[in-house]
């Protein structure tokens, strides 16, 4: 029988293992970075969702040769004014029209059909976003 020599150093002879210290440091750094990332995501989420006072959606659209009628439903805070940007694309994906539509007044819900003029027949109506003034 042969015995293989041990590659481990004798305990307590050379002091505490540096691996334990490195592991502890990495855990602390990871926890701090994780907390900072969580705070950053929360900050951006609050400002994107909490500060956006206008939201909208396209209910329906109807395309003609030189225009697209778009039915928009807009939800906003009372007294807030702003605008929504709508665009239309042709069948090949090229943009044929883009316009901003303004919404003012004290109503919190606006249901409106707007007409987007196009340079060619549009096949889509896409809401790009809404912004408060």
TrEMBL record:
Domain of life the protein comes from: Bacteria
Region of interest: Disordered: 1-20
Keywords assigned: Membrane, Transmembrane, Transmembrane helix
Compositionally biased spans, kind Basic and acidic residues: 9-20
Protein name: DUF4307 domain-containing protein
Membrane among keywords: yes
Positions of transmembrane segments: 28-46
UniProt-listed InterPro entries: DUF4307
Lineage, opening ranks: Bacteria, Bacillati, Actinomycetota, Actinomycetes, Kitasatosporales
Organism: Streptomyces longwoodensis
